[in-house]
């Protein structure tokens, strides 16, 4: 699908506009954190060709859309997967998104990436006459400063080592990644090359891994089942938190509310819960009945 320079209410942000947009988003931290860090990572590291659209009445109507471009959606359309940011005090400007019918085809399934819960509630009210939302909640935990008194136990065995990941590790990472149907192996290869990426290896085998994501956050950590409960996770999270901060990013993670183990781990590293986000699959009613 060709890249559209504009839709009904939005236009493609030009390269020379992006630093100013980043500065605008910084005025709304931490609420804008995921969007802010996504744009910052794009400007600094260019992991992938992202596309950012701003309202044609920007900044009076400060609505910005991000189309990641590399998410593997069922129909393979560029505009099928997106996220949106709008300041809390300007949620009425979301009517521009609701009326957008060129970039976004509301009659087809859509994939809305983790978006602040108040924005999602507004969109849910709008979408209720069109179809259903299959939602997953995630709480945003942010680390403003690592605790000075944190001490970690040594890795449990001599044959267990932490190393930077290499591109040849991408296939093993992709295999374990929960949403590997939505992300290609190529995404992980690019992340490993462009951004900090660490793994814990046991006798040469990759036991656990974690990388900085293309949206600035520390990516979801994964440990192979046979290596769990060995304390590998906090070692990975600790080194990546330090590395992300040293590169000028704000470390944050998105944790499911029911994931007590991850909450406990990140709280030990000084992370604090700030707000809730929601990821959703939007299905028109006709599509929903077919899918069921």
Molecular structure report:
By secondary structure, the chain is of the alpha+beta class. It folds into two domains: 10-138 and 277-284, Aminopeptidase, CATH 3.40.630; 160-270, 3-Layer(aba) Sandwich (Aminopeptidase), CATH 3.40.630.30. The protein has helices at 18-26, 33-45, 95-98, 117-127, 170-176, 185-194, 232-246, 260-268, 285-291; strands at residues 10-12, 51-55, 64-67, 81-85, 110-116, 131-143, 160-164, 197-202, 205-211, 222-223, 252-255, 271-284. Strands 1-2-3-4-5-12-6-11 form an eight-stranded mixed beta sheet. It has a four-stranded antiparallel beta sheet with strand order 7-8-9-10, sandwiched between helices. α1 (18-26) runs antiparallel to α2 (33-45) and α5 (170-176) packs across α6. The protein starts with 9 loop residues before the first strand and ends with a helix. 35% of the residues are buried. One of its GO terms (molecular function) is acyltransferase activity, transferring groups other than amino-acyl groups. InterPro entries: Acyl-CoA_N-acyltransferase, Acyl_CoA_acyltransferase, GCN5-like_dom, GNAT_dom. Residues 160-292 form the N-acetyltransferase domain. Pfam families: FR47.
């Amino acid at each position: 699908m060709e890249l559209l320079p504009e839709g009904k209410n939005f236009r493609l942000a030009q390269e020379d506009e992006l630093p100013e947009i980043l500065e605008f988003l910084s005025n709304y931290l931490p609420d804008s954190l995921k969007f802010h860090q996504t744009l910052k990572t794009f400007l600094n590291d260019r992991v992938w060709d992202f596309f950012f659209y701003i309202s044609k009445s920007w900044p009076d109507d400060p609505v910005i859309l991000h189309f990641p471009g590399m998410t593997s959606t069922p129909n393979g359309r560029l505009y099928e997967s997106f996220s949106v940011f709008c300041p809390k005090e300007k949620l009425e400007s979301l009517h521009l998104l609701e009326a957008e019918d060129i970039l976004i085809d509301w009659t087809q399934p859509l994939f809305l990436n983790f978006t602040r819960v108040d924005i999602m509630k507004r969109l849910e009210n709008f979408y209720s006459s069109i179809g259903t939302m299959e939602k997953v909640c995630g709480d945003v935990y942010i680390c403003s400063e690592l605790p000075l008194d944190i001490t970690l136990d040594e890795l449990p065995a001599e044959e267990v080592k932490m190393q930077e990941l290499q591109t040849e590790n991408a296939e093993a990472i992709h295999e374990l990644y929960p949403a590997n149907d939505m992300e290609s192996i190529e995404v992980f290869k690019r992340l490993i090359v462009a951004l900090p990426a660490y793994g814990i290896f046991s006798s040469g085998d990759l036991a656990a891994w974690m990388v900085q994501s293309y949206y600035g956050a520390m990516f979801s950590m994964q440990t192979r089942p046979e290596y769990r409960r060995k304390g590998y996770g906090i070692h990975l999270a600790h080194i990546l938190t330090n590395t992300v901060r040293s590169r000028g990013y704000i470390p944050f993670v998105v944790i499911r509310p029911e994931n007590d183990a991850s909450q406990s781990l990140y709280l030990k590293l000084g992370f604090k819960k700030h707000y809730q986000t929601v990821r959703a699959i939007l299905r028109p009613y006709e599509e929903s009945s077919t899918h069921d």
